[in-house]
Design a protein that fits this description.
Belongs to the LDH/MDH superfamily. LDH family. About 45% of the residues lie in helices and about 15% in strands. It has 7 helices and 11 strands.
């Protein structure tokens, strides 16, 4: 029997995650939770159309928070309503507003025994906050997974090599404080000189460029969620970091 996955937040990232899960068929049931019952129902209907058109076995449902306790994994992609005035380290702009929402969700899910995957920014702080308030034993953030994907892609383009040939990592806090592991980066298993300034500039500018063009990053974070779910659900060998 396949797992049940819950998604809290039916905005840009939640929609992208839902669509990816319907196509990939990781789960039997997909429970969608939103502050707006109408939004959750609308996304359910849209994904139901997608399910039938594509031939997916995944059944989407509009749900309430308390129904998520039976989920194998819960993805948290909710965002508070606020205006972000930060021009640098923009992810921190939502810390105060999002912490209120995350604390309330964590309190509702106190005692949940499954796995929680945090997407809400600032993701590292929200991951820790959710873990502390909820007491859930397995709470992960997707920040370093997304930063690492962007890093590998940038290095591949700058060095004109396939992205699959690049092995490297970005660690630490998601955002401006992230640390590029240049000394351990390899191409086809061989160490390479990483053009750090060019890489740093691209990693700094890329999220803003995406947001300026399509209002919000969504598919990159969704890809990081899907990649993490493969590991957390035991569908693929490997490790992810809490």
């Amino acid at each position: 029997m396949k797992p049940t996955v819950g998604v809290i937040g039916c905005g840009a990232v939640g929609q992208a995650v839902g669509a990816a899960l319907v196509v990939l068929g990781f789960c039997d049931r997909l429970l969608l939770v939103s502050r707006s019952a109408e939004q959750a129902a609308a996304l359910r209907d849209d994904l139901d159309d997608m399910r039938v058109a594509y031939g997916s076995p995944v059944r989407p449902y509009a749900a309430e928070i308390d129904e998520l306790r039976d989920c194998t994994t819960v993805v948290v992609a909710v965002r508070a309503q606020f205006t972000n005035s930060h021009s640098t380290d923009v992810r921190m702009g939502g810390a105060e507003a999002n912490s209120v929402v995350i604390s309330a969700l964590a309190a509702r899910l106190r005692g949940y025994t499954g796995t929680v995957l945090m997407v809400t920014n600032p993701v590292d702080l929200m991951t820790r906050l959710f873990a502390d308030v909820s007491g859930c034993p397995r709470v992960f953030g997707v920040g370093s997974a997304l930063d690492t994907a962007r890093y590998r892609l940038t290095v591949a383009r700058l060095l004109s090599v396939p992205v699959d040939a690049v092995h490297g990592h970005v660690i630490g806090e998601h955002g401006d404080a992230a640390v590029i592991c240049a000394s351990s980066t390899t191409v086809n298993g061989m160490p390479v000189p990483v053009p750090l300034q060019q890489v740093h500039d691209e990693l700094t500018r890329r999220p803003g460029r995406i947001s300026a063009g399509i209002s919000r990053t969504r598919y990159g974070p969704a890809g990081a969620v899907v990649s993490s779910l493969r590991l957390l659900l035991g569908l693929e060998g490997g490790r992810t970091s809490p």
